[in-house]
Specification:
By secondary structure, the protein is α/β, with parallel strands linked by helices. The protein is built from 14 helices and 14 strands. The longest helix is centred in the C-terminal third of the chain and has 32 residues.
Length: about 350
C-alpha cells in the first residue's frame, strides 16, 4: 500500500502513520502531462494495480485521479465521499470508476439523479470509522496533568460555520463574507453547548473537556465556550489549549463517557471504537451529517438551524451519563452495521486488486 498524500501532510502526521503501519510508503507530488513530478511518485504509479480515492467532502483529488487514469489506463475506485453535485468532467470521471461508495444516502441519491453511472454505486461508510490509531501514554499524561478522571468526563468540540483557514494557512486569503457569517452565528451555535455543559456540571459528577478537531478550534473553544461559562462551572471544565494528533485524541475519547459538538470526524472515530457521540450540523455543511441517520443514529443528529432539535440536545447528552447501558447498546448496533458495510465494500477493493 502506498499513500499518495497531499502536499501539506506534516512530518508529525507521517510519523504517526508509520507507527501504526510500519510498511506504509508515503509519496507526494503530481502528474503533469503524464509524467510524475518526482521519482518516488513515478515508481509508485508504475507499480500500482489501482488507485483508491479515500473519504472526503467531495472527489477532492479529481485532478490527480483524472491524470492517473489518462496516464495509465488503470482502474480506480472511490471510497466514502460526499457528493453534492459537480460539473460534467467530474460526473464523467465518476462514471468511469469501478465503484463509488457514498458516505451518506443524500449523496448517493444526488449522484443517481445526476446520471453518474459507475457500475457499483452504494452506501459506504466514511473510512475514518475504521481508525484505530492510539497514543495511550500521551492520553494518560494529559488526563493526569488536568486532573480528569477516566470515564467521568464528556468531550465537547466547538466549530464556526466556516473554518477560518486564513488564520492557519499562509496562502489562504481572508474571506470577509464567511467571517461575517461566522460572527453572526457564533453565539447562536455555541450558547446551546454552554447550556449543556452547565447542565452536566450541575446535575452530574462528570467534567467537560473542550477540545479541538482542527487547529482553529482551540481559540473558538476558549472564547465562545470556556470564557463565557459561570465561574463555578469553569472549575470542572478543562480547555485543551494545544492541538493534538489523531492518535492522542482517539485515546482520550476512549477514556471518556462520550462526545458532543459541531464536528463530524471525531464522532465518526468514536462510533467506530464503541464510544457514544452526538453530532450537531447546520446548513453550511455538506450532507455528510445525514450518515448518522443511515447508520441508525438519527436521534443523535441535531440540526442547529432547527429549534426543536436544540431542545432535544440537553436530555440526549445527559442520557450518556444517566443511562450508559442504553448508549452503549445504541453504539454497538451502529458499529455492527458500519463494520458489516465496510467488510462488503472492502471486498470490492480486494476483488479489483486481484483482477488487476
Amino acid at each position: 500500500m502506498t499513500l499518495w498524500a497531499s502536499g501539506d501532510l506534516s512530518n508529525d502526521v507521517a510519523a504517526m502513520e508509520h507507527r501504526r503501519f510500519p510498511k506504509l510508503t508515503i509519496v507526494k507530488g503530481s502528474l503533469r502531462e503524464g509524467r510524475a513530478t518526482n521519482a518516488e511518485l513515478g515508481r509508485a504509479i508504475e507499480e500500482s494495480d489501482l488507485l483508491l480515492h479515500g473519504s472526503g467532502p467531495s472527489l477532492v483529488a479529481e485532478r490527480d485521479v483524472a491524470a492517473y487514469v489518462a496516464a495509465t489506463g488503470k482502474p480506480f475506485g472511490v471510497y466514502g465521499i460526499t457528493y453534492g453535485g459537480a460539473g460534467e468532467s467530474q460526473r464523467s470521471l465518476l462514471s468511469k470508476a469501478e465503484f463509488v461508495f457514498f458516505r451518506d444516502s443524500v449523496s448517493l441519491a444526488k449522484a443517481r439523479e445526476d446520471g453518474i453511472a459507475s457500475p457499483v454505486m452504494e452506501f459506504g461508510p466514511d473510512g475514518a470509522f475504521a481508525c484505530d490509531l492510539r497514543n495511550d501514554d500521551a492520553a494518560d499524561k494529559f488526563l493526569e496533568q488536568n486532573s480528569i478522571e477516566p470515564q467521568k468526563f464528556l468531550c465537547c468540540i466547538p466549530r464556526l460555520r466556516y473554518t477560518p483557514y486564513w488564520l492557519i494557512k499562509e496562502k489562504r486569503p481572508f474571506d470577509a463574507e464567511r467571517n461575517r457569517r461566522n460572527e453572526e452565528m457564533q453565539e447562536h451555535d455555541h450558547a446551546p453547548l454552554r447550556r449543556v455543559i452547565e447542565k452536566v456540571v450541575r446535575e452530574t459528577d462528570h467534567q467537560i473537556l473542550v477540545c479541538p478537531e482542527d487547529m482553529t478550534q482551540m481559540r473558538v473553544g476558549r472564547e465562545l465556550i470556556v470564557d463565557m461559562l459561570p465561574e463555578d462551572i469553569r472549575r470542572r471544565v478543562v480547555w485543551r489549549e494545544t492541538f493534538w494528533l489523531t492518535d492522542e485524541a482517539l485515546s482520550v475519547y476512549q477514556r471518556s463517557s462520550g462526545l458532543f459538538g459541531l464536528e463530524m470526524h471525531s464522532p465518526i472515530m468514536c462510533i467506530g471504537n464503541g464510544i457514544p457521540a452526538l453530532v450537531g450540523r447546520f446548513a453550511e455543511q455538506t450532507s455528510k451529517g445525514f450518515m448518522w441517520k443511515d447508520i441508525g443514529l438519527g436521534d443523535w443528529l441535531f440540526d442547529f438551524d432547527r429549534p426543536e432539535d436544540l431542545e432535544r440536545l440537553e436530555p440526549a447528552v445527559l442520557s450518556l451519563i444517566t443511562d450508559p447501558q442504553a448508549a452503549a447498546e445504541k453504539v454497538a448496533r451502529a458499529r455492527k452495521f458500519v463494520n458489516e458495510r465496510q467488510q462488503v465494500t472492502m471486498a470490492r477493493v480486494r476483488e479489483l486488486t486481484e483482477r488487476a
